[in-house]
Amino acid sequence: MNKKYFYGKEETSVGIHSRHEKVKQFWTKREYDYQELIINGFVVHREIPGQTERTMPFARIDIFYDCPNGLGRKAMNGVEEKVYKEARKFLEPQELDLLNDKWIKAKYEGKYKWNDPFCRHPLYDRTLPNWIFGKSQDKKSKIETEKLKHKKYEKELMEKAVKEHTATLNKQISEFIKEIHYKERINSKKEKEKEKQSPLQDLFLTKDIDPKEVVGEDNLSTLYKHMKGDRELSKTKAIDYANTLGVAPSTLMFEPKTINVWSNVKFSSEVKTSEGMVVANQGVCYQRAKMETTVCPSDIYRLDLKAIRINDLNAIYDGFIAYYYEIDKVSEAANNKFCMIRTINKAPTLLGGYYKYYLGIFQIFGTKKIILNPDPTSENKIIASDIEPDVVAPIISFTKPSAILADKVLSKNIKQVQQLGELIRKEEKEKNKLKEIGLEKQNKQILQLQKQIEAQLQATKAEVRLILDKLQVEADKKAAIKKSFLGNLFTKDDDVIIPEFIKKENAKKRA
Length: 511
Hints:
There is one protein chain. This protein is an alpha+beta fold and 511 residues long. It folds into four domains: 15-149, no CATH class; 170-253, no CATH class; 260-404, Ribbon (Umud Fragment, subunit A); 413-511. The protein is 43% helix and 21% strand. A five-stranded mixed β-sheet has the order 10-7-11-12-18. A five-stranded antiparallel β-sheet has the order 16-15-14-13-17, with no helix packed on it. The protein is elongated and about 155 Å long.
């Protein structure tokens, strides 16, 4: 029997619902090419890990096409693995890369909703072309006007719904009390299932890696259990998989940390409402109606880590996140640094209280303190001048979430990765051997030098001995001559020849 996946009150045995608007359903590459579809963009919504409502995590993808019939759309909703495989059919490499980037980023945005299982309402985001986004905005404005016109009618409907709800409230409470223990057991099972999700799933899915090339056919069942989260991935196994895939073991064991984005900022211009009212100036932090989440680098994660998003299509830093640690003072190392600056404001702000928050380069200019615009393309170079901040926190990391989530797989061809690993290990072994050979050569050279020095010392000693022997022989000769002539030193014989050195010695004695 096929496992059933539920969408509220609806159910399906295939795990996916799809909807086509102005696009004919296609099953082959030929049918797809025949329609001459041009992809204008993707919108991806996924459930956040650990917050799924069903056994399998769900996702939705809307693909917008430019087709002969006008704006077309293909929407898919259901089990995330099946939705992804359906969406990637017949995509070109550059289109698949765009889908993969949005797929990975959407995992931590938490935008998935259960209120539209059959994809009747399109999904929009600001990455779509302006004419598509503008059309959606016009539709929304019409809906708003209709709501204002029928405000009284809606109020009556609401009162009627409250009465009906009150009538059944006691019954629901009693049913809840009866089933509370059962629901607790179900929730505990769900919690366990949430903990079972593994980062391996997306890695194999988006990179299209064949599991057989990683572990072989004998260990496929273990790998599938690790991918689905049915079995905990041990450190040893993570290291084995990481060595084969060419990634860090920690990325296979743990999901990236997520934190809330507490505010947004715009560098190129002011933030205005649809009516033209200024909400925030350049570089001033403001809050959006919906709370956002983002990933953060694991090496800087702390409980006091805060995040600010650059929400500015005209800035070069659009989509970047500024991370900083929360403090309650002006940092001593803040001068000429990219910082979050808080000043005391006389009037209450949109963020609440009497504080005003900036994001920019904090600079002490003489006796003044100013905030510079970090975006070099902006015409306004100074965000605020002559301020008196009470909190200045340096930005410790400034990056895009997609850079943190990017996979570091060396190649889809696992055999090439393994061969590369073997070559690297061989090269290291050869380097170690060369080091050992070099040490041996050095030791041999030292021994040879020692032998040469000893030979030179022996030769020098021999030469010294010869010189000393010669000197001794000469001294002996002088002593013999002196002795032979001492007896005739005072005779009157003129034939006796006295050596010169004896004469000198006698002259010294007389003196």
